[in-house]
């Protein structure tokens, strides 16, 4: 009985020590998948990262998103100018854009401003 008990103990101990090693061997594939997923998520986050711009003259902030980019491209089109990254323009040119932008609000912004005035 002693011999059987000892053999069983050795078997259990070796099993307990071997199982985590087997799981660890399978883990790199999961790590590669997690790393790939994290890299894709980082690209998505970077693409969705919003630029927040302060308009000093009008004392307000603007989120640079798809809607703002569309308005900016419309501004450039009206001025017959080629596309140039907003952040690369000098401050005077940026301010010209914000002046134009405040004169050309989005439809939703216009309605919201008008609704606020109606409530007064």
Describe this structure in words.
With 120 residues, this protein is mainly α. The protein has two domains: 1-49; 50-119. Helix content is 72%, strand content 8%. It contains four helices and two strands. The chain has helices spanning 2-48, 66-78, 91-103, 107-119; strands spanning 51-55, 60-64. A two-stranded antiparallel ribbon has the order 1-2. A hairpin with a 4-residue loop joins strand 1 (51-55) and strand 2. The protein is rod-shaped. It starts with a helix and ends with a helix. The model is unreliable at 110-116 (pLDDT under 50).
- Number of H- or I-type helical stretches: 4
- Strand % is 5-15%
Strand tally, please? 2
- Whole-number average pLDDT? 79
The low-confidence parts are: 110-116
- Radius of gyration using CA atoms only: 31 Å
Order of helices and strands: HEEHHH
Q: Please outline the major beta sheet.
A: 2 strands, antiparallel
Strand order of the largest sheet: 1-2
Multimerization status: single chain
Helix content: over 70%
End-to-end Cα distance, whole Å, is 95 Å
Shape: rod-shaped
- Helix- and strand-based class? mainly alpha
**Total number of distinct structural domains:** 2
Main attributes of the structure:
120 residues; mainly alpha; two-stranded antiparallel sheet; 8% strand
Topology:
Layout: H1 2-48, E1 51-55, E2 60-64, H2 66-78, H3 91-103, H4 107-119
Antiparallel strand pairs: 1-2
What is the compact description of this entry?
Helices cover 72% and strands 8% of the residues.
